[in-house]
Amino acid sequence: MTVKVIGAGLAGCEAAWQLANAGISVELYEMKPKKFSPAHKYKGFAELVCSNSLKADRIASAAGMLKEEMRRLGSVIMECAEKTKVSAGGALAVDREKFSDLVTEKIRSHENITVIEDEVTNIPDGNVIIATGPLTSDTLAEDIKNITGDYLYFHDAAAPIVTYESLDKDKVFFASRYGKGEADYINCPMEKDEYLAFYNALINAESAPLKEHDKEHFSKDNFKVYEGCMPIEVLAKRGEDTMRFGPLKPVGLTDPKTGRRPYAVVQLRAENSHGTLYNLVGFQTNLKFGEQKRVFSMIPGLENAEFMRYGVMHRNTFINSPKLLTEHFNCRKRENLFFAGQITGVEGYIESAASGIMAGLNMARMLQGKDMVSLPETTMLGALSKYVSDTTVEQFQPMGCNMGILPSLPERIKDKKEKYQVLAERGLSDLDECIKNF
């Protein structure tokens, strides 16, 4: 009894881990290092492309709640993230390479997992979990398309990375918003005139052209981007103050040099555990590399910044899951074919990994003759599972974890923090009861 898992990203690794720990033999297929997607560069498994942050870590937040659920479900990604984390205030961020290396080591060393370094071009027969991500290779994508019909598309982007030593330390300061956690962020404060000059340069900067294979799906008037990974230049074009209410918001920060809140603030977050590299938070971009250097060097403290990686944009692909999948992440028309990760329309690192847990857990239970698991809708993962399988959804779009997808509380709580805490406690309690019945 063997399961073929296609793709060793976050979702594929979680699925393989669940299956292997259930005593089921796994063949994990990964095309790297023989072949890389347009966005992937590192040879290891579970490569983080857009950001090194796994979002907020406090339980009374959607991301924190989901991560705690994953821990209770035996997540290998959460275990490795804890061991390779870097300082990031109230968020869980990791050293990308150390994180990938640790996940790779744990997966390769499991006695029930055989790693096959090869590209899969057709959906295999038998028990299969497809976790190839939003950048599925063209040949396999065509075969998937034969089952699912037309794909849905959107674009997302990655932010640039700069060296710490190249920053002007006289112009920046370390602090976390509202003083949460340690002073883990480098803050680049802007006065109004500096912000306006930066804003005007940004909205008039030249973007990189679309790849040839994307042009048939996108035009100037039909260009979809996912809100969570929106290019900073696209966000800026929505209005002069839009960035100041988004990634450049100054609230909760005081410039020690002036003793007051800046007009706008660009934040940098540690990219590795040594603190030698920092990424520009919220600065996903599709500007030409030369334009990134010119415009982002206008940010106070980044005038002489050394860019170790420029931002890039790539197309993401996902299937129309409400028409195709059950809440267990298997196909309605082929029970032993599961999908996991961003290809299902869950959006984000931890959401993708969590869906892999569900796919692996339920494939294992199906093969063991047990009922598949439906998590309570009061849990974040249960709510996400139901969202991607909801047949009433007509215009399906990627969904990340958020408190809005959870059922309402019986009592009305005005204070948002208190409300989120109660929602999280309810969901985790319900999850514990569900786990008792596994």
Sequence-ordered SSE layout with sheet pairings:
Blueprint: E1 2-6, H1 10-21, E2 25-30, E3 53-56, H2 62-72, H3 76-83, E4 85-86, E5 91-94, H4 96-109, E6 113-117, E7 127-130, H5 138-148, E8 152-157, E9 161-163, E10 173-174, E11 185-190, H6 192-203, H7 212-215, H8 232-236, E12 264-270, E13 277-280, H9 289-296, E14 307-309, E15 313-318, H10 321-324, E16 337-339, H11 349-367, H12 380-388, H13 416-436
Parallel strand pairs: 1-2, 1-7, 2-6, 7-16
Antiparallel strand pairs: 3-5, 4-5, 8-15, 9-13, 9-14, 10-11, 11-12, 12-13
Describe this structure as you would to a colleague.
This protein has 438 residues and is α/β, with parallel strands linked by helices. It has two domains: 268 residues, FAD/NAD(P)-binding domain; 152 residues, Elongation Factor Tu (Ef-tu), domain 3, CATH 2.40.30. It has 13 helices and 16 strands. The strands form four sheets. The protein has a six-stranded antiparallel beta sheet with strand order 10-11-12-13-9-14. It has a five-stranded parallel beta sheet with strand order 6-2-1-7-16, with helices on one face. Helix 2 runs parallel beside helix 11 and helix 3 crosses helix 4. The protein starts with a strand and ends with a helix. About 2% of the residues have low confidence.
Summarize the structure.
The chain is of the alpha/beta class.
Strand content: 15-25%
The Rg value, from CA coordinates, equals 22 Å
CATH class value of the largest domain: Alpha Beta
CATH superfamily of the largest domain: FAD/NAD(P)-binding domain
Per DSSP E runs of 2 or more residues, the count of β-strands stands at 16
How many independent structural domains?
2
User: What is the overall pLDDT average?
Assistant: 90
Order of strands side by side in the largest beta sheet? 10-11-12-13-9-14
CATH-derived topology of the largest domain: FAD/NAD(P)-binding domain
Structural class: alpha/beta
CATH architecture annotation of the largest domain = 3-Layer(bba) Sandwich
H/E element sequence: EHEEHHEEHEEHEEEEHHHEEHEEHEHHH
Major sheet summary line: 6 strands, antiparallel
Global shape: globular
